[in-house]
Amino acid sequence: MMAPYFVGWNVAGITLAEEKEKRRLEALFLTPVRPWQVVMVKGALALAGTLVMGAVMLAVGGKVPVRPGIWFLAYLLLTLFAVGAGTLLGLLFKDMRSMSIGGTPVQILLLFATTLPWALAGPVLWEVQAWLPTRPVVDLMQAGFFGEEVPVLRHALVMLGYVAAVWLANVSLVRRLSFLVR
């Protein structure tokens, strides 16, 4: 589960922040290549890297998911969210240093604070976490690996909502940045 955050998030975010730091992103936005194409290529590379990492982890781990379709759905949704969030932060921060300083706490919060077993604190908090990013994926991955019964459709729709929101924010930001450059 950490691969999407560490590979997808960082590849997309850090490469965009590096391009901005070296003033290459603005130069790319001035070429015939459309700004969204630049961002999508970085996102596609992060997506591909994360999916390969997931396949390697499955092969090395030696455990086959009981319900592979649900496991893959969870991994894909988390990857799309992590790549989108990394892309968003890469577009927002001006350089790699600020991306690391500002993005790491967000990444840790999303990875750990929304997934740690807070059930001991009470069922209300546990239920609230089911509506935050990452936690629905944990349940879906457990359902995929161990066959546990979880509300698959609800969890998938929650994550799909977060994926759509982060990518719509990226579209808006790319439009704004490309307008400022031209």
Automatic annotation (TrEMBL):
Taxonomy, superkingdom: Bacteria
Residues in the signal sequence: none
A cellular-component GO term for this protein: membrane
Record has Cell membrane as a keyword: no
UniProt cross-references to InterPro entries, sorted A to Z: ABC2_TM
Record's keyword terms, sorted: Membrane, Transmembrane, Transmembrane helix
Compartments, as annotated in UniProt: Membrane
TM ranges: 44-64, 70-93, 105-132, 152-174
ABC-2 type transporter transmembrane domain mapped to chain residues: 1-168
Membrane topology: Multi-pass membrane protein
Claim: Phosphoprotein is one of the keywords in the record: no
Primary location group: membrane
Matches recorded under Pfam families: ABC2_membrane_3
Molecular function GO terms recorded: ABC-type transporter activity
Protein name: ABC-2 type transporter transmembrane domain-containing protein
